[in-house]
């Protein structure tokens, strides 16, 4: 009997030795509160039998606390820190990563577009300046929340706005803006040979493009004239739209996918 009891007790001792030691947590309910640009308050609940804990920030000792609150100060704006609440002896530890306040938010962008410009406005917080990129190329940097970008007809423009705070952290948003084709018109009194004076510019650097000019007399269609420009070409010219016309009011309606017209005027004489 004694031999059996001895063997049973020995077996129990071996079993206990084989069970891994499980350390209790130093604390529970670790939270981060009152987060500002430069400070954060940590709160936790001590476990039974635990009286003090050690606080580490990014692996570096900060303090030993006999309680359940620690206020970390002197932090940098918009920066992430990992705090460890470490128990003594067999008590374990808890960790929490906290990002301080003051990070810029990604701009919320609104826009409108014509054939020649894109009008942008946006909202953001914790930002002191905004860099504007067009197709990933720097355009300018502004401190306000609106700007206008000069563009060309019939393009898909990638617009990025990067918000930057006082310590250099950034957040960005991107929109794609489609510009319409060129449209324009000019009106005047003329007769005989009705002509259009204009400066024309083809914004397409790869292909020839045409501009279409329709002439109306008091709203009645008279003729259409097509002018074709080589890739990237600009020219100033006078274009005859109609001949033998009576003295009256005329309007030239002009449109093109890529060619824009400037300095428009109508003339006419016998």
UniProtKB/TrEMBL annotation:
Signal peptide: 1-26
Domain Fibronectin type-III: 24-94, 101-170
Keyword set, alphabetical order: Signal
Protein name (database record): Fibronectin type-III domain-containing protein
Taxonomic lineage from the root: Bacteria, Bacillati, Bacillota, Bacilli, Bacillales
């Amino acid at each position: 009997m004694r031999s059996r009891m001895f063997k049973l007790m020995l077996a129990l001792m071996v079993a206990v030795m084989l069970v891994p030691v499980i350390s209790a947590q130093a604390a529970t309910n670790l939270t981060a509160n009152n987060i500002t640009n430069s400070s954060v308050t940590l709160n936790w609940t001590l476990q039974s039998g635990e009286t003090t804990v050690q606080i580490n920030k990014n692996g570096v000792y900060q303090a030993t606390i006999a309680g359940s609150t620690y206020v970390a100060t002197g932090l940098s704006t918009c920066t992430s820190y990992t705090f460890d609440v470490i128990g003594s002896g067999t008590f374990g530890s808890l960790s929490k990563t906290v990002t301080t306040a003051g990070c810029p938010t990604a701009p919320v962008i609104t826009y409108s577009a014509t054939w020649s410009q894109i009008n942008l406005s946006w909202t953001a917080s914790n930002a002191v300046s905004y860099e504007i990129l067009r197709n990933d190329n720097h355009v300018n940097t502004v401190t306000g929340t609106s700007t206008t970008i000069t563009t060309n007809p019939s393009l898909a423009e990638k617009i990025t706005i990067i918000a930057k705070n006082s310590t250099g952290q950034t957040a960005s948003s991107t929109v794609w803006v489609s510009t319409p084709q060129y449209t324009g018109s000019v009106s005047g009194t003329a007769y005989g040979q009705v002509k259009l004076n204009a400066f024309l510019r083809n914004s397409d650097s790869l292909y020839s493009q045409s501009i279409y000019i329709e002439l109306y007399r008091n709203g009645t269609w008279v003729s259409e004239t097509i002018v074709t420009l080589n890739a990237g070409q600009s020219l100033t010219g006078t274009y005859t739209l109609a001949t033998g016309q009576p003295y009256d009011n005329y309007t030239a309606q002009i449109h093109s996918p890529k060619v824009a017209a400037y300095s428009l005027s109508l003339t006419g004489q016998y």
